Write a sequence for this structure.
């Protein structure tokens, strides 16, 4: 009887220890939340530039008209040389240049990540191990791994913008480190606008997009 009770006690102890370990690991197994949907407009600078150019052109046109008073021959020659206005290059949006970026899911593809990068609209986080980060990472990306978050608060956290999308990536494919980092940034540091670039760094490098090398500047 005593032997049975001893075995039962051992089994209970093992079960309790297993449950405790699971509770410690569980936070890293949670799926990150889908961030709030948002639409980021692009091309505002181009619109302003177009307005300024139009205003300037009108002013210059008026100035030319005034200075050309009494020079009817020059005016006729100018119209003959250019009888119809030529459309400005880029006046119509192309298929490769969308007017806005729609972020309505946790995961984003390489194209969306590239648009955010090229327009300076996101902070990028590399979730891979140090040796991979040093060998090559998205230019300007911060280095934050699951292990770093498990042991404390990485210095790079202080440089992430709270009002800006955060794009997290790892090796793509079966790599889950980006998800783990996204979940920790949401739960511990309250960054809601976190996204995962599912294609990972290999796709970024293969597309010949900007890459940086060298150690993490915040590494201790």
């Amino acid at each position: 009887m005593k032997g049975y009770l001893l075995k039962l006690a051992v089994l209970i102890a093992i079960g309790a220890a297993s449950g405790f370990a699971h509770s410690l690991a569980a936070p890293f197994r949670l799926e990150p939340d889908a961030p709030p949907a948002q639409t980021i407009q692009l091309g505002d600078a181009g619109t302003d530039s177009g307005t300024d150019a139009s205003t300037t052109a009108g002013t210059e046109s008026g100035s030319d008209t005034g200075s050309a008073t009494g020079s009817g021959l020059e005016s006729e020659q100018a119209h003959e040389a250019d009888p119809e206005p030529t459309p400005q290059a880029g006046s119509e949006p192309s298929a490769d240049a969308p007017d806005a970026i729609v972020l309505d899911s946790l995961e984003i593809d390489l194209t969306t990540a590239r648009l955010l990068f090229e327009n300076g609209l996101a902070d990028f986080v590399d979730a891979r191990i140090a040796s991979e980060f040093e060998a090559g990472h998205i230019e300007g990306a911060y280095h934050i791994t699951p292990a770093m978050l498990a042991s404390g608060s990485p210095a790079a956290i202080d440089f992430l913008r709270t009002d800006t999308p955060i794009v997290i990536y790892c090796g793509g494919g079966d790599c889950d480190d980006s998800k783990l980092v996204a979940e920790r940034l949401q739960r511990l540091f309250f960054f809601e606008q976190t996204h995962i670039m599912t294609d990972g760094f290999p796709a970024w490098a293969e597309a010949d997009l900007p890459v940086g090398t060298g150690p993490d500047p915040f590494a201790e």
About this structure: The chain has eight helices and nine strands. The radius of gyration is 28 Å. The mean pLDDT is 75.
